[in-house]
Specification:
Number of strands: 2
Strand content: under 5%
Order of helices and strands: HHHHHHHHHHEHHHEH
Number of domains: 1
Shape: globular
Mean pLDDT: 93
Helix content: 55-70%
Radius of gyration: 21 Å
Oligomer: single chain
Number of helices: 14
Low-confidence stretches: none
Distance between the termini: 16 Å
């Protein structure tokens, strides 16, 4: 379905309708929401303890794989449903210093302060604006025909696999690119990444392996595997939310005089949802509701499922597409785009 061109009055009314949804959720936040995030955090920590405990028996294959996979699930849950959303400020209203955007440091090679600038400020302000949003191909992939083709893109199907496996490190240098372009303090940024990576490396490749005694090497290898599995999952979810289907990319001039309603419209047309059940939504950090997240990045993630039908109804009423499909189809869509746009042309 192609988006109908809205008049200014229609865009303004769209903005008012979506603002109303946001205000209703803000006014309704309370005990149930706080209980939700605290339970998720408790479950994630339990999974991490279980995974690391299993790895003490890493000489047995079942314990090695059981520990690695359990730890990968724990890391994914921490990055997606907890870290990403806490650092968006979704839970700041609780006034709990332990679950606050200003204090949370996630289990990831990317420092929280740099991620919040690159993601919260740049990506969510300039969503899908070519030349402003660095999430469009992460500056290394051609994912839209408007990006000029270069022979290096012929290899992008291969290096996208490597990018997926090392996704946290791609995130770590994400903000550095903006500092280079804008004359920011690159040295301070690199120093912050170095400190964060050192802490992560000591935890996963020194401290916990040493605690395992003669299984130290096996534990270090399992920790590495867990990190790679987490990276691949996060990469998959992020790419499914931004690149498959008919999502639109916009020229920079769209930002000139952009109203609240037009900003909402850009979020609707530049995002995709993944259909599925509660477990899928939890493990994606509710970024399976990528459309709702882009419309309301600071609302509690557990509310996106109840908001989604209302957003879908609004889209139908205004003649706007609501991009949503299964995980398998969305994965096929974003990989199809990566493969096709490795070559010149495209549409």
């Amino acid at each position: 379905m192609e988006a109908r061109q809205l008049t200014q009055d229609e865009a303004d009314e769209l903005g008012r309708e979506l603002d109303k949804i946001r205000a209703e959720v803000i006014g309704d936040r309370g005990t149930a929401d706080a209980r939700y995030i605290r339970r998720v955090i408790a479950a994630q920590r339990g999974l991490e303890v279980a995974g690391r405990a299993l790895l003490f028996g890493a000489s047995r294959r079942w314990a090695w794989w059981g520990g690695a996979v359990t730890l990968a699930v724990a890391k994914s849950l921490e990055n997606m449903e907890i870290g990403h959303n806490v650092m968006h400020g979704q839970w700041d209203w609780m006034r709990d210093p332990k679950i606050h955007s200003t204090t949370w440091e996630w289990d990831n090679a990317c420092p929280a302060d740099q991620w919040k600038h690159a993601h919260n400020v740049l990506h969510h302000t300039y969503t899908n604006v070519l030349g402003k949003d660095r999430d469009i191909g992460y500056t290394i992939l051609r994912v839209n025909p408007a990006q000029p083709w270069h022979p290096v893109y012929l290899a992008q199907p291969l290096y996208n696999v490597l990018f997926a496996a090392l996704f946290e490190f791609g995130n770590a240098v994400y903000d550095i690119g903006d500092r280079v372009e804008t004359g920011g303090d690159v040295r301070a940024g690199l120093a912050g990444i170095g400190r964060k990576f050192a802490r992560q490396a000591v935890k996963d490749y020194v401290a916990f392996p040493l605690l395992a005694g003669r299984n130290a090497r096996r534990v270090a290898a399992a920790n590495f595997t867990a990190g790679v599995l987490r990276n691949i999952w996060v990469h998959t979810v992020i790419f499914c939310g931004h690149f498959p289907g008919d999502v639109q990319v916009f020229p920079e001039d769209v930002l000139e005089g952009e109203t609240r309603g037009q900003w909402y419209l850009r979020q609707l047309l530049g995002s995709c949802d993944i259909t599925g059940g509660p477990l899928l939504h939890l493990m994606t950090g509710n970024l399976s509701h990528q459309i709702e997240h882009h419309l309301f990045p600071d609302l509690p993630s557990n509310r996106y499922a109840e908001i989604a039908p209302r957003v879908q109804e609004i889209c139908a009423r205004y003649g706007l597409p609501y991009h949503a499909d299964s995980l398998v189809r969305q994965v096929a869509g974003h990989w199809g785009r990566v493969l096709r746009l490795a070559f010149p042309g495209g549409r």
